[in-house]
Q: What sequence folds into this?
């Protein structure tokens, strides 16, 4: 008998999580629970100025009044917010002067993550900010960026060093009251990345942050703020992993992008948080608010490859405020076993001649549920606005679900909106064709799925694209015995 | 090379092949002709390992291997190539990447190292010229947006790249204009050697004007009912398939 | 703060109405009554009413007629089988009933025992109202293997001011039967009317049924209607909804396919003008394998009108080999017009081919220019383009009486020529 798709599906279930290990870096935790005192402790530990503490306390009060949303097409046991540790930092919090100073065990951790820092430093010139649990660990290439006036540092450092920039932009794209998780993040975020590209500067290298949840029982609440000043350009990468743990862990991040006149931000994410085991036990709840605002002639492009997390709730969005501004969203979301993803985007067209493109590829396997949810909103003044959306779903088994929930709202007659969606099974004739040429079923599926996602993978910077392809293959192929 | 003995096969309970026997030796070109519904494409599908068909009786020996017990990809790796009647489109997968993956899987199977990029590209250049395939098509997605003729030439190009022992051309002439037909035939003829063999499945004699067969077989109602040399094809063209039917009654 | 957002109590809305005399199962009436007593009018926070505000409607009160008035009406077909309802009450004098073989066609009030086995559900406030207050409706039954050649036309005409018509229709097409029904909703000398309709349609094995829904009530009319359709195996069902006028029109179309090899077609056109609000919610629920559904809805929104399209296709677990296609096209003719389109797919089986597409835009200006360059006036060019756009949907109508009626209406109302 040949290897059937059914057997493949079985193998997928048994496939181990590649990044599953627990490293023993000592960490500095505060007790579980959330109240104003905890927020004061977090703020005090980070030696924050009063305005930052006020921002947090205000957010906490707003959050306390809110209820957790349940409109997404996902089902899960709501987290107990009093049972989470809101601050967990690796003990060695001193700043590293050079890479050599970094704790060898931490280096080992990074290696297991698949990020060989040394290699990256040597070969690619990627500047990396590494956020483990909640605190930024190392930022490389800082001096080189400094020469160009580019600020790339941890969020905490930005609060200390560049308070005027942080105060000017933080919360302007994602207001504290935007939604439940954004409010929570605003109250308790511990670290994240901050990036500022000055006027007219083209950032010469990819900026990159790796996020990792390490401690058991902790939540991760990072906050990222990227400001591209007039006429500047930056490409920003974000990678996520977490070790295997039985309990669900919460990740509630906020990412704000500000693309001023004629600026462009390219934001790419490869998300591989621990998805839980094949019975759906454990895994990360990934409740993330990502949004960018485009001023005149500006552009924001989101690219995401989502293969991890038990539950994903994420809609990287663009507010196309300025005339001629452009928003793009390219997404691949893979779900397997009991994973659930409800992801998509919002394109809010306010300015004239604004343009948006949405390409979403969902792949469902196992008993998973994969939903695209998107909003295209054309406001009255958005003359000649254009949107094109293509949402495709690929189903690998008869026990998974693939759903498409697009919302299209148009109040301008000169706008043009096109939305297309398809749902289909992976092509048996394609698999057969590959096999007839000598390619194994497993490789054939890898080829076909990668081909299916090509429009999105092409948007990623080269090193990331390779990593993403591997991840897709790992998520779907499993080891054939 | 291949010995098909008393092959019976069903699809969805309907018997299509009813005791087909055929032997092809190295260096030979065999043509299988027959009316629509005779079982020509079924034979190609079964030899390539399509799972919809159930073999109920008979055997196929391919160079000493029990072909029917092998997976599709193992048959391909052992040197069996099917030029599809309807080549499949695979969006997003470039022709080059596809072929390279196939070639390396076959090489790995044979215990060989992967082909070097340089060697591979040189081969692509040489073989695509053979079927006058625009080298640009090599970097496009597999068969996507190809014209009918381009798809068929792409099949022969792949055949040239993978160098099979036995090639089965399933209605390769269908939908081809005369120029494309000549190009495809020229490719097949150039690739012919005393070590490989070809089975040409066709409805019309036309292709056989360009690919001269050593033997012609008439497949009718799941069996080979008549065998001969290329003259048989000429006779069929003149008298039509009704002649065979009449003769059988 | 919440208190000020509270919506009108639903019992106020219906307080002048008298309970239904139709024989709905007692339990169902109790359930519906409780629903009305405990449920407020839906708001835009309710996902099903996200784009349709009912606040104004909820503050009004409408009156049900006690006796069937008489009224003029337009009819589409020359059918011998025509029933006329005025303000929701059956008017035998205006009706024209010829008994044909295998066809039972009566006012529901005359044969309401058929409701004993109704499978209607209380799914929302308006279905609850319908069950509690329905005055009448039709009962159509086509017996096994009977073909009714000419369409059965049911005219629902509203006349007078602040009138409410609460209508309940029961249509049963038995195994192997074939028929078509026209539901022709209109108003004559009417102002501020409210129509609440539920039509339950059951299409038996191998049966063939076409339903035409024509909506030409006037610009003060509020219409909330639901068709609940079940399709058994090998059946064919085609519904064609044409919404030409109204103040607020909400059409819910729920099709549940429960037998294999069924074929489903849903087509609709909606033409918004003035301050009209038209909302089409369709659901095709594929519960079994090997079926096909095709949906095409097109809207042209002018002036200050708003169009809503929400099309949902479900493919349930194990409902393999489903082909489901859905398409929604919209043209906005004015900057004050709005369109909200929500085409949704919810798929739980893998061997399926499902797609949906939604486009919103204005007329192709290049094409308008081309026509003008050939000497056609701009106005005529635009009308021609709109006709071409909406013509796709009209072409799906295979009854010429219906399509002729529709095109003549379009010509008189909008000057569109087909």
A:
């Amino acid at each position: 008998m040949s290897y059937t798709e059914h057997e493949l599906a079985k193998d997928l279930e048994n496939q181990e999580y590649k990044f599953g290990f627990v490293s023993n870096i000592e960490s500095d935790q505060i007790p579980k629970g959330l109240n104003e005192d905890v927020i004061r402790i977090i703020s005090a530990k980070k030696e924050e100025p009063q305005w930052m503490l006020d921002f947090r306390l205000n957010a906490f009060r707003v959050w306390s009044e809110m209820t957790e949303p349940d409109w997404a097409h996902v089902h899960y046991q709501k987290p107990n917010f009093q049972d989470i540790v809101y601050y967990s930092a690796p003990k060695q919090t001193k700043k590293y002067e050079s890479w050599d100073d970094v704790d060898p065990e931490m280096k080992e951790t990074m290696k297991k993550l698949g990020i060989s820092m040394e290699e990256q430093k040597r070969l690619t010139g990627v500047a990396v900010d590494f956020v483990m649990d909640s605190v930024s660990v190392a930022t490389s290439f800082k001096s080189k960026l400094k020469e160009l006036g580019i600020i790339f540092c941890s969020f905490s450092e930005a609060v200390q060093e560049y308070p005027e920039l942080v105060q000017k932009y933080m919360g302007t794209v994602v207001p504290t009251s935007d939604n439940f998780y954004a409010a929570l993040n605003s109250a308790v975020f511990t670290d994240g990345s901050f990036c500022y590209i000055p006027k007219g500067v083209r950032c010469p290298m990819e900026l990159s942050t790796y996020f990792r949840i390490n401690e058991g029982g902790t939540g991760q609440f990072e906050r990222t703020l990227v400001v591209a000043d007039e006429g500047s350009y930056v490409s920003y990468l974000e990678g996520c992993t977490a070790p295997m743990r039985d309990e669900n862990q919460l990740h509630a991040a906020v990412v704000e992008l500000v693309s001023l006149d004629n600026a462009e931000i390219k934001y790419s994410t490869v998300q591989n948080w621990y998805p839980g085991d094949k019975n759906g036990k454990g895994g990360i709840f990934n409740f993330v608010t990502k949004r960018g605002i485009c001023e005149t002639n500006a552009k924001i492009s989101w690219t995401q490859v989502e293969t991890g997390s038990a539950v994903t709730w994420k809609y990287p969005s663009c507010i196309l405020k300025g005339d001629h501004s452009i928003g793009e969203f390219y997404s691949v979301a893979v779900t397997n076993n009991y994973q659930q993803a409800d992801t998509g985007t919002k394109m809010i067209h306010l300015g004239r001649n604004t343009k948006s493109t949405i390409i979403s590829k969902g792949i469902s396997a196992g008993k998973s549920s994969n939903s695209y949810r998107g909003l295209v909103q054309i406001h009255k003044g958005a003359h000649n606005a254009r949107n094109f959306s293509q949402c495709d779903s690929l189903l690998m088994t008869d026990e998974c679900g693939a759903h498409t929930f697009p919302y299209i709202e148009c109040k301008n007659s000169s706008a043009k909106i096109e939305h297309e969606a398809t749902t289909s099974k992976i092509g048996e004739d394609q698999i057969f064709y590959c096999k007839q040429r000598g390619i194994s079923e497993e490789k054939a599926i890898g080829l076909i799925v990668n081909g299916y996602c090509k429009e999105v993978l092409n948007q990623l910077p080269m090193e990331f694209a390779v990593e993403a392809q591997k991840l897709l293959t790992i998520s779907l192929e499993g080891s054939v015995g | 090379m291949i010995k098909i003995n008393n092959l019976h096969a069903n699809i969805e309970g309907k018997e299509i092949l009813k005791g087909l026997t055929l032997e092809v030796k190295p260096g030979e070109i065999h043509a299988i002709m027959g009316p629509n519904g005779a079982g020509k494409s079924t034979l190609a599908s079964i030899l390539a390992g399509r799972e919809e068909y159930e073999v109920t009786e008979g055997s196929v020996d391919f160079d000493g291997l029990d072909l029917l017990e092998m997976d599709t990809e193992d048959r391909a790796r052992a040197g069996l190539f099917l030029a599809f009647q309807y080549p499949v489109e695979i969006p997003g997968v470039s022709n080059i990447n596809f072929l390279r993956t196939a070639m390396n899987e076959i090489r790995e199977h044979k215990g060989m190292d992967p082909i070097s990029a340089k060697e591979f590209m040189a081969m692509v250049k040489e073989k695509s010229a053979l079927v006058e395939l625009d080298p640009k098509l090599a970097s496009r997605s597999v068969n996507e947006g190809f014209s009918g003729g381009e798809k068929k030439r792409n099949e022969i190009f792949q055949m040239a790249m993978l160098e099979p022992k036995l090639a089965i051309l399933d209605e390769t002439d269908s939908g081809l204009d005369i120029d494309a037909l000549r190009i495809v035939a020229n490719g097949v003829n150039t690739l012919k050697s005393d070590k490989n063999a070809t089975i040409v499945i066709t409805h019309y004699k036309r292709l056989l004007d360009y690919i001269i067969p050593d033997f012609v077989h008439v497949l009718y109602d799941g069996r080979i009912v008549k065998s001969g040399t290329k003259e048989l094809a000429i006779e069929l063209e003149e008298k039509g398939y009704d002649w065979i039917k009449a003769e059988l009654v | 703060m919440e208190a000020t957002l509270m919506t009108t109590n639903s019992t106020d809305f219906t307080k002048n109405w008298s309970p239904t005399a139709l024989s709905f199962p007692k339990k169902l009436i109790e359930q519906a009554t409780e629903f009305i007593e405990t449920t407020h009018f839906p708001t835009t926070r309710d996902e099903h009413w996200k784009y349709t505000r009912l606040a104004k409607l909820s503050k009004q009160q409408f009156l049900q007629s006690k006796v069937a008035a008489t009224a003029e009406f337009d009819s589409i077909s020359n059918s011998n089988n025509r029933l006329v309802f005025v303000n929701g009450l059956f008017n035998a004098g205006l009706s024209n009933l010829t008994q044909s073989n295998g066809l039972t066609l009566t006012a529901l009030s005359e044969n309401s025992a058929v409701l004993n086995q109704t499978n209607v559900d209380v799914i929302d406030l308006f279905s609850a109202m319908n069950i509690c207050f329905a005055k009448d409706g039709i009962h159509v039954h086509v017996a096994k293997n009977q073909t009714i050649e000419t369409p059965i036309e049911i005219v629902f005409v509203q006349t007078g001011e602040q009138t409410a018509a609460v209508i309940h229709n029961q249509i049963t097409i038995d195994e192997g039967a074939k028929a078509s029904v026209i539901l022709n909703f209109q108003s004559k000398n009417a102002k501020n009317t409210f129509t609440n309709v539920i039509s339950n349609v059951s299409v038996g094995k191998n049966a063939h049924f076409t339903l035409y829904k024509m909506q030409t009530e006037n610009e003060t009319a509020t219409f909330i209607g639901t068709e609940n359709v079940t399709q058994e195996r090998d059946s064919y069902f085609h519904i064609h909804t044409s919404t030409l006028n109204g103040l607020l029109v909400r059409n819910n179309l729920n099709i549940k396919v429960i037998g294999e090899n069924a074929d489903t077609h849903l087509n609709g056109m909606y033409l918004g003008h003035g301050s009209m609000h038209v909302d089409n919610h369709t659901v095709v629920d594929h519960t079994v394998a090997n079926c096909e559904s095709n949906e095409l809805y097109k809207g042209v929104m002018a002036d200050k009108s708003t169009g809503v399209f929400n099309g949902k296709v479900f493919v349930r677990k194990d409902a393999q080999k489903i082909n489901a296609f859905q398409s929604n096209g919209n043209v906005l003719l004015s900057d004050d017009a709005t369109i909200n389109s929500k085409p949704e797919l919810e798929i739980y089986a893998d061997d399926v081919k499902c797609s949906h597409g939604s486009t919103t835009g204005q007329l192709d200006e290049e094409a308008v220019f081309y026509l003008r360059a050939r000497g056609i006036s701009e106005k005529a060019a635009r009308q021609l383009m709109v006709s071409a756009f909406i013509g796709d949907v009209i072409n799906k109508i295979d009854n010429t009486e219906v399509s002729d009626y529709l095109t003549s209406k379009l010509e008189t109302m909008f000057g569109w020529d087909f």
